[in-house]
Design brief:
Helix content is 78%, strand content 0%. The chain has 99 residues and is an all-alpha fold. The protein has helices at residues 13-65, 72-75, 79-98. The model has no long low-confidence stretch (mean pLDDT 86). Helix 1 runs antiparallel to helix 3. It is built from 3 helices and no strands. The two termini are 43 Å apart. It is rod-shaped and about 70 Å long.
Length: 99
């Protein structure tokens, strides 16, 4: 039979359907990768923005108090940003590990 492939599987319409399925799965995978890359870029941008705010706070703290941040009470005015920064870093690591 000339329609059989090298492994003896029938050719023809069944092959074209599996080819479409493979293409569809590849397209889905490419779409998922693109989404992950976009999310990683977004997180990286957000991380940079917050890092800038934290750095500015630290610099101002040193100027005001003549010492580095050492205690939890020192970061209370910007604690929300510290937590957000930590969470973004963790999420970014998860996203990058999926790529």
């Amino acid at each position: 039979d000339s329609d059989d492939d090298l492994l003896g599987r029938p050719g023809g319409a069944a092959d074209s359907r599996s080819g479409t399925k493979q293409k569809s799965n590849r397209e889905k995978a490419e779409h998922q990768i693109a989404q992950l890359e976009a999310r990683a870029n977004s997180l990286q941008t957000e991380k940079g923005t917050i890092r800038g705010k934290l750095k500015e706070f630290q610099e101002n703290f040193v100027l005001q108090h003549h010492r580095k941040i050492r205690f939890h009470k020192d970061i209370l005015p910007i604690e929300k940003e510290y937590r957000a920064y930590k969470n973004i870093k963790e999420e970014l690591q998860k996203v990058e590990s999926q790529l």
